[in-house]
Amino acid sequence: MPELPEVETIVRDLAGSVPGRGIQEVEVFHADLIEGETPAEFARALQGRRVGAVTRRAKNIVFDLGRGDRLLVNLGMTGRLLVPGRGDPAPTHLGVRMRLTRGRELLYADTRRFGRLWRVDEAGWRDFDGRLGVEPLSDRFTVEHLYEMTRKSRVAVKTWLMDQARVVGVGNIYASEALFRARVDPRRPASEVAREEVERIREAVREVLQEAIDFRGTTFLDYRDASGNRGEFYDRLRVYDRDGQPCTRCNRPLLRVVQANRSTFFCEECQR
């Protein structure tokens, strides 16, 4: 599933080409991608609207439509949001096509169709935003906030870090990577992590997310940016998907365990 760096990369790509363009026509090829209304209602509601700012909240892409209305896109496991160049072929598994003014298109493709597109008004946006946790690259992501929140939870610290109601955008890849950098065992209860360790986790989360953004995300199979290019961070992963390979610090084999039905990668020697 695309995490914060992948979604942020797409948002930055779209911010350079989509804002200011009107939506002339909307075609929905798979009804299950649209949430909260029929494809026909969705298409009618968007036609004629002009796209303002393109931003990100958690792992969601947010298009400002004016008058308090927003279009939200969650990429699910395999979703791709593209602005193709003129003459580029349409992607496979195309789910939604939006024809924009000045000759451009915004395309949503999704192999497994776990992604969703939906509209919210101002009240719906406030409700949606209020159910999400703190943005890890924001000023609100402080040691004090994290330390206070972890005192209340006995779940494993990696599982805690991936809870979108607490901290948004940190998924399986970057939680494993951040905890390795912070030298914290992902299996430890969150409430038992010391304050100085919380400080290291905070810094590691911010560091690894920013590095991944700089390298335009991590591609395993499906993720592509808005131009269809792969992310370049995979070769810089230190633990994720490297079980059995030597730790970059101590040379011992890295381990893989399953937590909350997700794979966790770590070094039992370096992470305590």
UniProtKB/TrEMBL annotation:
InterPro entries: DNA_glyclase_Znf_dom_DNA_BS (IPR015887), FPG_cat (IPR012319), FPG_Glyclase (IPR020629), FPG_N (IPR035937), H2TH_FPG (IPR015886), Ribosomal_uS13-like_H2TH (IPR010979), Znf_DNA_glyclase/AP_lyase (IPR000214), Znf_FPG/IleRS (IPR010663). NCBIfam families: fpg (TIGR00577), PRK01103.1 (NF002211). It comes from uncultured Gemmatimonadota bacterium. This is Formamidopyrimidine-DNA glycosylase. Monomer. Keywords: DNA damage, DNA repair, DNA-binding, Glycosidase, Hydrolase, Lyase, Metal-binding, Multifunctional enzyme, Zinc, Zinc-finger. Its cofactor is Zn(2+). Binds 1 zinc ion per subunit. One of its GO terms (biological process) is base-excision repair. Pfam families: Fapy_DNA_glyco, H2TH, zf-FPG_IleRS. Its EC number is 3.2.2.23, 4.2.99.18. DNA binds at H93, R112. It comes from the Bacteria. Residues 238-272 form the FPG-type domain.
